[in-house]
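Notes from the 1:1 (GR / supervisor)

We went over the backlog. Supervisor wanted to see one worked example end to end before approving the batch request, so GR pasted a single chain during the call. The sequence is below; no edits were made to it. Supervisor asked that the structure be written out right there so they could see what the output format looks like.
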Amino acid sequence: MSKLAYTNKNSSVTFQAIVDIFPLAISVIPWGILCGSMAIQTGFSPIQAQFLSLFVFAGAAQLSGMSIIGSSGSIFSLISSTSVISSRHLLYSATFRDDVRHLPFFKRFFIAFLLTDEMFAVTETYKQATGKLSVKYAIISGLTFYIIWNISTFIGIYAGTQIPKIESLGLEFAIAATFIAMVIPSIKTHPTLVAVLSSGVSATALYYLKIENGLILSAFIGMFAGYFVKLYQEKNG
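Structure output shown during the call:
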């Protein structure tokens, strides 16, 4: 979105945050439904399943954790898997660190709790367009996503008690669709393009080769590929 659109005086920060995050929030409704239904099928009570989204609010880590619990995996597998999946938030928080370090604890707490891939994407874009991070924008966009996520989880919990084998509907594709929608608009340079393509190709290859933690390895492959292309460009002008 252009800087002009962001600085339009007729558009409040609150309204802008909701408008920007809404398409991404809507796109993960199938993901939330899957998360809620999977919790029921794993053995969680409806209240426990809803509390998981209310207090953990971790998306992919929730799905991974429930999958491990459902297959009677070890505590080590549960902790290591969810930690690796959530580790990207270290990069997100590092990006915002200098912008929020002066804020009161409760504001930093809310930004940290509401920090998701989607919230980071729209907030960072807004920051680049306006020249500074808006705490109000970050919290409103994150809160909007949080509310829609929990509503979709509630629907999934109900569906999980009423619809048998809901996982066969292919709702998990919402995860891939959401990340595609987030990544494609950010491809504006050759290093980014190389990073995305190398990650995608290596992830596909490692999947068919049945390499354990292939998705994580492909992420590192993409990062290094993009980094070396950037170094090459800087060296050769």
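Supervisor's comment: Residues 3-182 form one domain.
Batch request approved.
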